Amino acid sequence: MKKLLKTLSLLPDKQDFKAFFISFALINFAFLHHTASYLWGNHDVKFIRNRLFLDSGFFEGRFTQFITQNFLLMGQILPILNNLISFFAFTLGLWLLAKYWNIKKTTLNYVLFISFLGTEPYTLSWLYFSLQTISCLQWVFFAVLGLYLSALIYQSKYKFLLSFCAILCFYLPLGGYPPIINTFGVGLCGKLAVSYLIEHKTLKELGAIHKYTIANIIIACLLFKLSLHFIPVDNIYNLKTTDLSQLTAKLVSALWFSLNQFSVTLPFMEYKYKLILAAMSVTSVICALLTSASAKRAGITVFFIICTICASQTTTFLAVSPTEFVPRIDFYGTGFVYGFFLAFLLTIGAKITESLALLFALILIPVNIINDYRAQWVWKQGFDSELEILEKVVERIENLPEFVPHKSYRLYVAGDIIMRPQFYTGTFRHSDPFLLSYPYLAMWQGANLVEFFPSSVNINHDTPLLPTDITPEVYDFYTTQARPWPHPTSVRIINDVIIIIYNNYGLEDFKHKLRQVRQLSPD
Amino acid sequence: MQKILDLFTLSKNERTMWLCSVLCLVLGFSPLLFNFVWGNHDWQPIVFGNSLTGGLVEGRFSQYAVQTFLLGGKVFPIINILLGFIIYTLSLVLLIHRFFELKTSDTAGIIFVTATASVPFIIEILYFHFIVFNMLIWPFVLVLSLLAAKKAGESSHYIGYTLFCLSLLFIVLGGYPAAGNLFAIATSCQLALSYNKTPDIKKLFWKMLPYAISIIIAFIGLKYSFRWFKAAGYMKDMYNTEEATMWEIISKTPTIIRNSLISFIQPQPYFPVIFKVLTSLVFFTFFVKYLKKSKTIIDGVLRFIIIAAILLSLKFAAWIVHEDPENFFVQHDPASYMVRADFFSFPCFLLFCLFYLSQECNHLRKNILIAFSISLIWISTFQNLSFAKTFVLGFRAEDKVINRVIDRIQQNPNFLLGVDYIIVQTGEIPLRSKYHTVNPWEKYGYYTTVIPYTRHWLAHEFYNFYPPEPFVKKGNNIDPSQMPPALITFISKKVQSWPNENSIYVDNNYAIIALSPKGREMMIEQFNALPDKFK
User: How far apart are CA B116 and CA B118, in angstroms?
Assistant: First the structure.
């Protein structure tokens, strides 16, 4: 093992260990409140009680999503360990990226780079759903390992073996979460920029080295598409790719989003924060231009930098559903673009650029951590408030005279209760469900939520509310008398159906559905 | 004095073993450290602490001695568990390096001790917060006792050391008799080791005599102290204080050996198949290696007897306790599989086997053993976390029920402020198991997955816990001759189970709660069994 790692230049030395553990500690510190509080998102409810299975992600084409969770934790979502494993794999991936991008090796440089990238608020978006945290943070490691191994093929005599491993490293993350393709793109283009400007490689040499990377990524993508044919995938939104006829229009919009991503503010990433990030990015480009030996070299470097920026929107370009400015997708792209700019400053090697990198990192890492803590506070308050409401709703159900303990009920929930935004005071241009606006009490998770704590509520998960349940009395009640929570009429039991109306929007939507049912009914 | 100090001076490697073991336990049980949650006997000790004589009622005269001395008998968040971990892991280090004197390479030693410390046998000990500190301290006192017995065989102060060993063992047995498992298994393992070194039976007899004397006299002393406590009215006749007769012990022997062997392979909650496979491979490899050393038939027979002694020692408490088919806790099945009794035997045996095998094996096999141990650390840690998760979620769920029942009682129009109520809670709602994914092969786990936080007979403790003014008095009997007509109507005609509005009855003396359908049925059955004059 040691020999193999040495051959691949992957055997960590003392400096690597030190940098890794300091960064790992810092990343854990940034998300400590989340780790210690054991929060979970609305998709997690069922899996917190039970477990994840290998095929739990098949329905949306994520056939490798829960391999690690099953292998390491028998599919359980465990407090503390879930985050620790995720951050361990993520830190490892970033350490490898520091090596891949050839950042000047000092403990400080590595710590700055890894900690900056690891603590960016984009990481938060993968903490909302606990079931995906391990899976989606570990893909960074696989992606970077794939890039790293691909770059070694050119000089190695084990070309086939390395290619096979690299393809596997690209294929597994694609099968777990396809937007990881953004990291492939940013990582590769970033490497081209660094190699061209700082390692003084020629374009020919770059082509010779990195043709394997491109080939491996393409093979992995084709294998991924092929695999989807053998997996029982539902026809869901996030697997649809752009038609060939739409590609040009998509390219233009993806380019536009690439530029826009520097200015769009998001929850916990407000304009001042974005401004500092933009300043670092611009400084990095200027430094690159100033250190270029010739105008031609500067021009080509700028081209590679633009490619790096644009690669961060690969998913937006390829996918039909809108994915621009979604932090969990930007985690694989935009986050790494910022990381690339810091890496660039650290790699150029001039004293002034190193000082600038240090300055930016020393400003940005604390700001990252503060933003992370703001988010965690908001999340915890939201989580606790929503669970308290859930408790009251359950109490209301159990206190209804019609309620028979342990009887099997069907459940219909109209609307959500979203408490996180109540505790957030920042301003942003583009909201995000995972960072802020998703409810913990999501209407479609009602059955799992209502059953989570109490002992006597038993929900039939298989049969929904049926048109036959809408008697004239039910229709009249919900179109004229019902009011949303906490009004006494917001929770009712009608025969074997529990109906909960959380908010006005839900009530209006329910009324609309009732009217539709009535129009369709033969009476 | 210097010699004694040397005995407890840890080398750098030993300190690393100790630290790693503590960290591993802290990681595995961090949700219990961050969240102050407790078991069903803890409601009062959490508030009032433990008194020095608090355990006398079941003959546990020394149960709170160390806790009273060090923590004033209090039950604190973090401290009780953390101190317990620190002392327990120290005892493992001393046990292997000072008592067994088994050594291996530094890294292997750290891995083996950490693997042993992390095995989930500790989970049942952590359920009751009020005894966790005491329970984790007994291994340390037992190791001191074992060291004294060992010293007796080696020094000229034979009687002095034997008496010291006996006293320490007696104190531990007075705290938790099942802790004697550790003394028994460590003695058997020491016998196995000593027989390897000196197969001379006479020498072996004198060497092992202090252990035998200590264990026999300590248990006889315990038996007579129980009699004395009972005669003096300090102690109740409890199911777990009756020892078996000699004939019972002999007749139970094959069953106990069988139970020990079944324990190696039987998956239990938080002890998945893979865990059992790994540990039983270690145990059976030890047995095979040990038997393979026999040179003659007699030698083989003696080794076979030693192995039988090890198997009996693993379930020592279950072997010597009087079996009562009427009482769930002292039937050989499940009593033989109680994780908290196994806590005092299996980790010790595992530690012994790992070190023993690492000395006997070649380089490759030693590496396999290390890989096994690393896997064990991983499996144990996430199983410990899984236990902690179900513990915390189950506690929260049941806590919500209690608070709602209190609300319901106090909002009842008949409720009178300032009255000390007799609360009768029939039935229980154990909710921990909701958060535990059951493995199809697993058996047993009453304390680890089922037992509720709100036992019906401790109602006065938890219903008084949260309200600003206590409103429940101790004792939960309804006097049939004093039953008001409304209560008779409630039980005979109206009662429904929680959360129905007719699950609660309140007057100016009684508050009755039918918490589960089973509890409701029990209440009606008991009422129907009353003579007609009371109905």
Answer: 5
Contacts of A79 in chain B (CB under 8 A): 30-31, 385, 388-389, 392
The reply to whether residue B392 touches residue A81, judged by beta carbons under 8 angstroms, is no
Q: Global pTM?
A: 0.92
Which distant-in-sequence residues (6+ apart) come within 8 Å of B132 by Cβ?
B80, B81, B84, B125, B126
Residues B431, A453: C-beta atoms closer than 8 Å: yes
Amino acid identity at A408: S
Chain B positions touching A78 (Cβ under 8 A) are 382, 385-386, 389
Strands A497-501 and A491-494, sheet pairing: antiparallel
Identify the closest residue of chain A to B517 by CA–CA distance.
Answer: A405
Average pLDDT, chain B: 91
Each residue's pLDDT tens digit, A438-484: 999 998 899 999 999 988 899 999 888 888 888 889 999 999 999 99
C-beta separation of A412 from A453 below 8 A: no
Q: What is the pLDDT of residue B200?
A: 87
pLDDT at B56 over 70: yes
Of the pLDDT bands very low, low, confident and very high (cuts 50, 70, 90), residue B328 is low
Residues of B in contact with A48 (CB under 8 A): 393, 435
Residue written as token pair 């294998």 = A223
Q: Residue B423 corresponds to which amino acid?
A: I
Which one of A38, A49, A73 has the shortest CB-CB distance to B382? Answer: A73
Report the share of chain A in percent with pLDDT over 70.
Answer: 98
Query: Which of chain A's residues have a Cβ under 8 Å away from the Cβ of B37?
Result: none
Cβ–Cβ gap A405/B517 under 8 Å: yes
Q: Which amino acid is at B285?
A: T
Q: How far is A373 from chain B (nearest CA, A)?
A: 18
Answer yes or no: are the C-beta atoms of B219 and B180 closer than 8 Å: yes
**CB–CB of A397/A491 below 8 Å?**
yes
CA B65, chain centre distance (Å) = 18
pLDDT of residue A147: 98
